Amino acid sequence: MRIGLSGGGATVDRMIEQAKGAEADGFSSLWYAGATGGDPFIAMAMAGRETTSIELGTSVVQTYPIHPVLMANRAAAVVAAMGRPGFTLGIGPSHKPVIEDAYGMSYQHPGRHTEEYVSVLSPLLRGEGVRFQGEDFRVASGARAAKPEQPVPVLIAALAPRLLRVAGEQTDGTILWMGNARSVETHVSPLIRKAAAAAGRPEPRIVAGLPVAVHDDVDEARSVAAQQFANYGVLPNYRRILDLGGAAGPADAAIVGDEASVTAQIQQLFDAGATDVWAAVFPVGNDRSGSRNRSRALLKELAAA
Asked: What does the pLDDT look like over 74-124, one tens digit per residue?
């Protein structure tokens, strides 16, 4: 199974050791939030130099604050520093409370913004020049964009129909958060695969990210998840995907239970159409380290399957 973990750490050295350990344990990928370490790109590049095969991806970098030409150049810089393939660029428009309320930027047309953004970014990452005239972007890249030394797959944090279409038509797939097996099977997979097929593109990746805890007391685990991930239940974008999955909140979407139950729930994600599972391990109970270790041990076993 293609199973990845959340990336992060208090220091760059810790992030490097984490990547080396995850690779040694057979995990396929590490996924870094856009705010990791203030900006994860430098630490990811350094971790990439100290590993050989593990995929290092962002989940996700916000599009609004970073012009697509600059984003393409940053991605090129990361792969140049890594010196190998394995960097994946996950992007997304974020949410109104961040973009509009905190940054003071308009969040009036996130779908249009992201579609135009990808229309500029994707060809730049292929080393092509861009002349684009849209509502949000007017770009003549000229010699301002650096061609990546290695391919840079792009994934969109696509939850609604428009961005799932864009992801299928123009990128390598989608990276989800809070999308359970039901939402993947009935909503995400059909829409993105239809769009990719219509555009003549390969089968898209569907990276399904969910909180995971191996714990015998399911009620306790869901109670912890409800507290730790409460914010995702009120943000409109996540609320939509939770509703599509029939989940009352993040606690219902979380994958929790004993080893047999968690294994079955992860298999359901793959059966629903996910190509990868990104497991965001969270601790339950007083022994936080032991809880994390138990979850990781099972995920390591499944990653080897």
From this structure: 999 999 999 999 999 999 999 999 999 999 999 999 999 999 999 999 999
What CA–CA distance (Å, rounded) separates 159 from 59? 14
CA atoms within 13 A on the CB side of 130: 26
Token reading at 13: 């050295």
| CA gap 62, 34 in Å, rounded | 7
Instruction: Say what angle helices 288-303 and 259-272 make with each other, to 10 degrees.
Output: 50
For residue 119, give both structure tokens. Answer: 């229309």
pTM for the whole thing?
0.97
**Do 106 and 100 form a contact (C-beta atoms < 8 A)?**
yes
> CA-to-CA distance for 184 and 269, rounded, in angstroms?
7
Low-confidence ranges of the chain (pLDDT < 50): none
Give residue 142's pLDDT: 86
Buried b (16+ CB within 10 A) or exposed e, 187-201: bbbebbbebbeeeeb
Comparing CA positions, the residue from 153, 147, 154 lying closest to residue 80 is: 147
